[in-house]
Design goal:
Blueprint (H helix, E strand, L loop, with lengths): L12 E3 L4 H14 L4 E3 L6 H5 L1 H12 L12
Parallel strand pairs: 1-2
Length: 76
Amino acid sequence: MTNPGQINGDHNLFIAGNDAQAKGTVTEIAGSLGWTHVQDMGDIKASRAIETIVLVWLQLMVTSGRALHNLHVARG
């Protein structure tokens, strides 16, 4: 998470919370680390959905044999 440039292409960092100022701070910090796609998922209840992404990430690691991967939301 501290070096998103290690992975080629676009990918998203998902955030959620009830404090808009805190989410703004997190977005700024993420931007300073190189994140270009920070997706605000809403209030703290959305964190439950975000946490399940680790299951997809782990399965990708198992099947690819590599830990350097992430997800990107493409919109049409």
